[in-house]
């Protein structure tokens, strides 16, 4: 099934994992997200648009420039500060802090997700109806590593579909999730604007970790989930998508 994956697409994923500084943030504008910086290194916040307003709490210690699809942050000193990005009716809140014992964020993909789609089911707004289909399908991606498709969710009035997974590590070593790539595809094309988000950067031996596949506009009743791990592609067809 390697023919399903474009060389360019997998190259982008491999390069991001090589530097170990790429991660994804989901936000609804209510939470302040930490961004870890390091002197001599730049951080890119990818938003998908050029923001209207960027407000830095302490401009003396940071060079911040707007890009066509985000902002770039260049620290000048090891002092933390707040950063707010405003665009139309949305706000993005961050706290820039020195990386002490953690990896520097070199590239952060920031994705806006409505608040009602980020909260647990019991906290959803009463005006929104959440449909949940339990699945429990096990996808073996290694001899001692399973990715379990737990369920899929859809919310009334939204074309977004959310698939929740659980990674089970039965190996004796800690696994870094950046070494696992997952892409939803229909035919030979990857679905547009999709996001696969891990709960943490690594999962210890004998532990479990949750993850989410978010598909903003899914019109198909089935798709292929392609998982790459240790140079191998595991293709699983996901059918019965809620509509």
Descriptive key words:
243 residues; mainly beta; Immunoglobulin-like; 2 domains; five-stranded mixed β-sheet; 7% helix; 53% strand
Could you describe the 3D structure shown?
- With 243 residues, the chain is mostly beta strands.
- The chain has 2 domains: 91 residues, Immunoglobulin-like (Sandwich); 121 residues, Immunoglobulin-like (Sandwich).
- Strands 1-9-3-6-5 form a 5-stranded mixed beta sheet.
- The longest helix has 13 residues.
- It is globular and about 50 Å long.
- 20% of the residues are buried.
Topology (elements, then pairings):
Elements: H1 7-19, E1 22-27, E2 32-37, E3 43-46, E4 53-56, E5 62-67, E6 70-75, E7 81-87, E8 90-98, E9 107-112, H2 115-118, E10 130-142, E11 145-155, E12 161-169, E13 175-176, E14 180-186, E15 189-190, E16 195-198, E17 202-203, E18 208-215, E19 222-229, E20 232-239
Short description:
With 243 residues, the chain is mostly beta strands. Helix content is 7%, strand content 53%. The protein has a 5-stranded mixed sheet with strand order 1-9-3-6-5.
N-to-C CA distance: 28 Å
Task: Classify the helix fraction into a percent range.
Answer: under 10%
Strand content: over 45%
Quaternary structure classification: single chain
Helix and strand pattern? HEEEEEEEEEHEEEEEEEEEEE
Low-confidence stretches: 1-20, 120-126
Q: SS-based structural class?
A: mainly beta
Radius of gyration from the alpha-carbon trace, in angstroms: 19 Å
> Class of the largest domain, according to the CATH hierarchy?
Mainly Beta
């Amino acid at each position: 099934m390697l023919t399903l994956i474009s060389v360019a697409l997998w190259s982008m994923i491999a390069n991001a994992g090589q530097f170990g500084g790429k991660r994804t943030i989901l936000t609804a504008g209510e939470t302040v997200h930490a961004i870890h910086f390091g002197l001599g290194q730049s951080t890119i916040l990818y938003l998908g648009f050029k923001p209207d307003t960027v407000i830095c709490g302490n401009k003396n210690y940071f060079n911040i420039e707007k890009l066509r699809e985000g902002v770039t942050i260049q620290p000048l000193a090891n002092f933390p500060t707040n950063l707010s990005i405003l665009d139309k009716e949305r706000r993005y809140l961050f706290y820039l802090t020195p990386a002490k014992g953690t990896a520097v964020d070199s590239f952060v993909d920031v994705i806006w997700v409505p608040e009602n789609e980020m909260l647990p089911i019991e906290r959803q707004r009463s005006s929104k109806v959440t449909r949940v289909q339990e699945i429990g399908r096990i996808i073996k991606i290694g001899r001692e590593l399973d990715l379990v498709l737990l369920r899929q969710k859809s919310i009334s009035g939204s074309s977004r579909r959310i698939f929740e997974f659980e990674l089970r590590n039965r190996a004796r070593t800690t696994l870094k999730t950046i070494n696992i790539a997952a892409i939803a595809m229909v035919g030979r094309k990857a679905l547009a604007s999709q996001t696969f988000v891990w709960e943490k950067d690594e999962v210890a031996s004998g532990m479990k970790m949750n993850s989410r596949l978010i598909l903003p506009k899914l019109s198909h009743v089935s798709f292929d989930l392609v998982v790459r791990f240790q140079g191998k592609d595991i293709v699983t067809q996901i059918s019965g998508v809620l509509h």
